[in-house]
Amino acid sequence: MSDSSRVTDDAERPLRILIGADTFAPDVNGAARFAERLAAGLAERGHDVHVMAPAASRKHGSWKEVHEGQEITAHRVYSWRWYPHDWLRFALPWRIKQNAARILDKVKPDVVHFQSHIVVGRGLSVEAEKRGIRIIGTNHFMPENMLEFSLIPKAWQDWSVGLAWKAARRTFGRAEAVTTPTRRAADFLERYTGLRGVHAISCGIDAHKYFPNWEPRTENRIIFVGRVTGEKQIDVLLRAVTLLPAELDARVEIVGGGDQKRNLEHLAAELGIADRVTFTGYVTDEELREAYHRASVLAMPSIAELQSIVTMESMASALPVVAANAMALPHLVHDGENGYLFEPGSAEDLAAKLRKVLEASPEDYHALKEGSVRLIAAHDIQRTISTFENLYRGKPVTDPVTDVAPVAVPE
């Protein structure tokens, strides 16, 4: 075999990849879902994929797990439950470097890809740097999102957020490449950490798992999908529903679980709309696809989305979207093209934009649905996985276009 052939073979050989995550399946949130899909997609391409994450129960250790139909090796580290949060478990910070060192020496990965800087990412980055292992870091986290669960007094919260961003700077500073899901999120990370050259790489979705429903609407059903927590601002949606004309007979479906479910049920009753609001809790993937198909519009009032996989899934299902004009949502929702943006926190503006969708003519409504399908085409996860493979191998990458898709909607 020639030297050039050896170089080519080595460059394309399957990699041993260790993904580090502070939240991973069975957790239900955007970061956990992305890490799971990435791990499964890489395994499907023949790579040897390992995941280090907090144990989902008291049972901890290393074993095989199947995710998205693919087998990976999970290294579940001893964890504690964080009781201010409804499900969160965390790896013990004072043992994380010891655990990271043990797992790194056992796995001997070609590359470490951590998904946040908080606990697991910090331990892995410190120990991987000592061993000369290539490190890639991805940020899905905003310190502000955890304040309501932190028990930190209000007077100390700004100081705490500053410390969190300094910690992020130290951990991400150890990585050869840093990524986050959108250009706006990348700019945000650079501004608050001083990092430069952060890549904007879409989390992506399994586009083939979602498909449009072109059947005419038979009701006005507004859907929200996600964690039922404070930063999602679901209360704004409920208040907006009370401002819609009675003749629309708008119904609301809240898909997901969280610590605010009971409070929101009480709010719906106080607002007199309890009979029009359904809280479904957590659902299966098939049930979620059915929920998208029976909906008329997705409402996303959250002000803290670094990308919003839910919004992408709904777009792939040909749903128009009404979303807060905040963080990454304007990357996905283009006014008048696939939905509308509203002033964050404004129930009045949200109601006005929902009316634009629900009162649209059949032709205009169909055009919004087509807009969602067209705009989502750039976010296929296969494109995302290919980009990360190149980063793992140290190849130069061009950030995928995540604002618009270079395809036309068929007539």
TrEMBL record:
Domain Glycosyltransferase subfamily 4-like N-terminal intervals: 28-207
Keywords, comma-separated and alphabetical: Glycosyltransferase, Transferase
Top-rank lineage group of the source organism: Bacteria
Signal peptide: none
Start and end residues of each Glycosyl transferase family domain: 216-370
Pfam families per record: Glyco_transf_4, Glycos_transf_1
Listed InterPro entries: Glyco_trans_1 (IPR001296), Glyco_trans_4-like_N (IPR028098), Glycosyltransferase_grp1 (IPR050194)
GO MF, any single term: glycosyltransferase activity
Gene3D superfamilies associated with the record: Glycogen Phosphorylase B
A GO biological-process term: carbohydrate derivative biosynthetic process
Protein name: D-inositol 3-phosphate glycosyltransferase
Organism: Agromyces flavus
Source species taxonomy: Bacteria, Bacillati, Actinomycetota, Actinomycetes, Micrococcales
